[in-house]
């Protein structure tokens, strides 16, 4: 008999909290070798089971694909000719396949395959928790319904196959099954080996597709029902391997290096739906809202729920929050959203390959069995690419200084390029001789999805991979269905046009691949750690005027914000383009232009303007105090944080805009559109060659009926500091009023401190329900100079005698003016800082240039 030593910590009466003695005992306790060997054991066992599972499932689906299309096509064809021309139906009750390529039959075939969309809809809610093997009976029921409807097609209509999607209410179906596979692979691999393991599974998948596809095509020539039933049986065998899979969530420690979280109550670890509770005042709250750690137990009640009834919409909102909460980690990470978008568009593009057999059969007059054989031969190219080419490129060609994820990103970019060129070649191929090379090029890029999946996995935590992969599978399934409908329609349009346009569907999908390529080339990996930027942070205050302000997480408002963005974007573009292309050139007067500018501000709901003027009480700005506002012939020294600054100033004052540069008193005359675009431009420390600079005094003399706007900081900030001011304000004539104007926003994230942030600005501006502008205007300041507009020049006379006192008067006058000019700049800067409730800093244009260079090395601006 084997004696077992019982640890006191493992007994039923062991204390929940460790004592100091037990803690020290635990620290000195040696690690068990069995525990150390557990991850490797789980990994080996998991790989064997998953390889067998993937092999069986892929073989089964490869058997199913071609025969399923042929059976559906034959049923739709027979039903069509039963009404159109019964003489075409043979003695065996079937119609020759060559007669089934007409548009009416193909349209009904696409409609029948729409049942897959119902399949996806029933699987969306299955990924909130980790997937379970409950999908096995669901798939069995789905198979039975599908076989019965197709076998007895003389009794059931073809679209009755849609009913089979109801079976996915049990377990979630293929989406959840594949989510299980990918999640477990991610659980037992590190970032370094994940892509390689994905390639191995891709090789298994493609090899099985090649072998089973060829055999299925051979059997289809005799009877499509034979490979169809064999495929269902093999898939069922593969799904049974789920019962043998071990738990892998904690097989490898998490990537997160932060300390372990503090102990929590067992109720907080439950995956069940939160239970609603009611206080004695009848207020509704969740268990998660109770602050147990605060010690305020007197607020907790243990009474029965009150009889207060909640509205239907409140219950729907609670359910919505419950089902959306597990996916908030996706909505709150822009890089993940960008990559998921590429998954969806990629699947839309790859939807054309789903119809490749049908396309080859129709365009080149091949049978479906022959076309399926050609399509099934693609793994003869993809397997060597996965087995030798991609690993060789990753190890020998790409720089060893790059991380594994960076190498995956570059390989993904190359793969999408091959996919784009190959797909376009398929659409343009007039014969099989040119189609085959195009298919080879396209197949060479087939590693894109595995590479993209490996990259996106590095952006989330291990306990989030199950939900992430479920979303990926759902996006791919939705993309398949949308592609099924759109590609069929475009394909039929190409057939009607004939000639060059027969491959129109593949030309369209190559365009979609270009969109995916743009996304993947635009994507940049987030830095592994936050870079240290002490030179761009002011002292110990932590003020960093060039850092972008983080946007609020989408959270549960994601549908509303997406709707607002999609609804407002066309209106905003129309109104903006209409003004800058047409209205501003028409003789509609200042009032008409201001009305058009307010329409631009009104689309994103910038209605509320909080205006305050120094020395004027709120609501008392009457005609007698208009002198406290900028007037024609005055200067507006405005803060510069957003392109909205220029639009607002133009809508209120109709000014002349200028661009300032450090260390020069001259300015560049610019238009409103240039002022808006300058908010997205890189900072310039000096004017570009060919720039026409003018004096501020000459501008005031040229436009005496309009104020002049100067942005003295020379570049945009995030609104959290005031940069050193340019000398352009000093170029104003004597006694010209200079009005410091501070413009701030709420929410504060509609600023553009980084150049090129067009898309993020549009998203923030148009997706928020409303925005508020807070405008502060300080009292005017003037420069008290000598009666002469220009300071006297210093004497350059050389003398061998001591300088006479009278000779130094000019120099003293010049020094006095310099002091007054500096005092004026300081006064304007202090006014802007006071009104914006921020501090003045010593960081200027040069520091921002350095910051932008450093920032763009590790981050993308969009």
From TrEMBL:
Q: How does it sit in the membrane?
A: Multi-pass membrane protein
- As given in the record, the signal peptide range reads none
Classify the main location.
Answer: membrane
Q: Where is the composition biased (Basic and acidic residues)?
A: 1-14, 24-35
Could you cite one Gene Ontology molecular function of this protein? transmembrane transporter activity
Where do the record's region annotations for Disordered lie? 1-36, 256-283
Please give the GO cellular component terms listed in this UniProt entry. Answer: membrane
Keywords attached to this Swiss-Prot or TrEMBL record, sorted alphabetically, are: Membrane, Transmembrane, Transmembrane helix
- What are the transmembrane regions? 44-64, 136-156, 162-185, 225-245, 327-348, 368-390, 410-429, 435-456, 468-494, 500-523, 562-583
Task: Enumerate the InterPro entries for this protein.
Answer: MFS_trans_sf
Q: Where in the cell is it found?
A: Membrane
Q: What is this protein called?
A: Phospholipid/glycerol acyltransferase domain-containing protein
What organism, scientifically named, is this protein from?
A: Penicillium atrosanguineum
């Amino acid at each position: 008999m084997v004696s077992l030593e019982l640890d006191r910590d493992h007994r039923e009466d062991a204390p929940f909290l460790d004592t100091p003695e037990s803690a020290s005992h635990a620290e000195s306790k040696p690690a068990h070798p069995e525990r150390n060997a557990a991850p490797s054991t789980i990994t080996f066992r998991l790989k064997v089971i998953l390889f067998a599972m993937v092999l069986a499932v892929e073989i089964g689906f490869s058997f199913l694909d071609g025969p399923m299309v042929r059976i559906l096509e034959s049923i739709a064809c027979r039903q069509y000719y039963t009404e159109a021309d019964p003489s075409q139906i043979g003695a065996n009750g079937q119609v020759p396949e060559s007669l089934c390529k007409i548009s009416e039959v193909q349209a009904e075939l696409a409609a029948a395959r729409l049942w897959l969309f119902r399949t996806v809809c029933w699987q969306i809610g299955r990924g909130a928790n980790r997937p379970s093997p409950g999908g096995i009976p669901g798939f069995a029921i789905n198979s039975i319904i599908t076989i019965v409807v197709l076998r007895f097609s003389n009794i059931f209509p073809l679209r009755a196959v849609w009913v089979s999607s109801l079976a996915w209410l049990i377990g979630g179906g293929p989406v959840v099954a594949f989510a299980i596979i990918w999640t477990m692979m991610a659980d037992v691999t590190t970032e370094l080996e994940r892509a390689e393991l994905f390639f191995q599974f891709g090789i298994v998948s493609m090899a099985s597709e090649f072998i089973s596809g060829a055999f299925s095509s051979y059997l289809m020539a005799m009877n499509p029902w034979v490979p169809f039933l064999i495929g269902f049986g093999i898939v069922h065998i593969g799904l049974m391997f789920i019962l043998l899979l071990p738990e892998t969530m904690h097989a490898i420690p998490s990537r997160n290096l932060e300390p372990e979280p503090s102990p929590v109550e067992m109720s907080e670890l439950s995956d069940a739906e939160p239970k609603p509770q009611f206080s004695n005042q009848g207020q509704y709250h969740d268990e998660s809202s109770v602050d147990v750690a605060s010690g305020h137990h007197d607020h907790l009640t243990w009474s029965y729920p009150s009889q207060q009834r909640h509205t239907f919409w409140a219950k729907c909102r609670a359910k919505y929050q419950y089902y959306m909460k597990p996916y908030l980690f996706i909505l709150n990470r822009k890089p993940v959203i960008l990559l998921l978008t590429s998954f969806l568009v990629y699947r839309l593009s790859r939807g054309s390959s789903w119809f490749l057999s049908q396309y080859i059969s129709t365009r080149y007059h091949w049978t479906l069995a022959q076309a399926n054989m050609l399509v099934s031969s693609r793994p003869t190219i993809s397997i060597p690419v996965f087995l030798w080419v991609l690993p060789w490129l990753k190890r020998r060609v790409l720089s060893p200084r790059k991380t594994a994820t960076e190498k995956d990103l570059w390989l993904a970019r190359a793969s999408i390029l091959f996919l784009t060129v190959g797909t376009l070649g398929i659409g343009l191929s007039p014969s099989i001789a040119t189609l085959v090379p195009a298919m080879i090029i396209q197949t060479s890029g087939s590693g894109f999805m595995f590479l993209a999946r490996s990259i996106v996995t590095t952006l989330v935590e291990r306990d989030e991979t199950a939900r992430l992969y479920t979303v990926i599978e759902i996006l791919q399934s939705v993309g398949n269905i949308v592609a099924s409908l759109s590609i069929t329609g475009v394909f039929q349009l190409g057939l009607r046009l004939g000639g060059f346009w027969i491959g129109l569907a593949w030309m369209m999908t190559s365009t979609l691949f270009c969109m995916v390529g743009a996304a993947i080339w635009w994507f940049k990996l987030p830095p592994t750690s936050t870079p240290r930027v002490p030179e761009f942070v002011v002292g110990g205050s932590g003020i960093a005027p060039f850092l972008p302000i983080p946007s609020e997480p989408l959270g549960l408002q994601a549908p509303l914000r997406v709707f607002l963005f999609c609804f407002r974007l066309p209106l905003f573009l129309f109104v903006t383009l209409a003004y800058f292309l047409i209205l501003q050139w028409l003789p509609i007067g200042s009032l008409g232009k201001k009305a058009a500018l307010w329409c631009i501000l009104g689309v994103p709901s910038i209605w509320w303007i909080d205006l305050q003027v120094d020395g004027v009480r709120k609501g008392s700005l009457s005609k007698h105090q208009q002198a406290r506002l900028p007037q024609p012939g005055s200067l507006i020294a405005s803060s510069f944080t957003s392109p909205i600054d220029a639009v607002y100033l133009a809508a209120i004052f109709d000014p002349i805009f200028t661009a300032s540069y450090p260390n020069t008193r001259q300015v560049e005359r610019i238009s409103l559109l240039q002022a808006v675009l300058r908010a997205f431009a890189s900072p310039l420390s000096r004017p570009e060659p060919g720039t026409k600079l003018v004096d501020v005094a000459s501008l005031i003399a040229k436009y005496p009926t309009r104020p002049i706007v100067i942005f003295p900081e020379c570049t945009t900030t995030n609104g959290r500091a005031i940069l050193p001011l340019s000398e352009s304000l000093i170029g104003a004539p004597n006694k010209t009023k200079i009005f410091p104007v501070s413009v701030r926003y709420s929410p504060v994230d509609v600023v553009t401190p980084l150049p090129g942030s067009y898309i993020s600005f549009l998203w923030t501006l148009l997706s928020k329900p409303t925005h508020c502008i807070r405008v502060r205007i300080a009292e005017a300041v003037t420069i008290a100079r000598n009666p002469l507009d220009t300071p006297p020049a210093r004497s350059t006379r050389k003398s061998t005698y001591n300088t006479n006192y009278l000779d130094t008067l000019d120099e003293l006058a010049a020094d006095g003016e310099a002091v007054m000019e500096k005092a004026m700049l300081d006064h304007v800067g202090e006014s802007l800082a006071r009104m914006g409730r921020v501090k003045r800093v010593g960081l200027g244009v040069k520091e921002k240039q350095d910051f932008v260079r450093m920032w763009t090395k590790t981050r993308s601006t969009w």
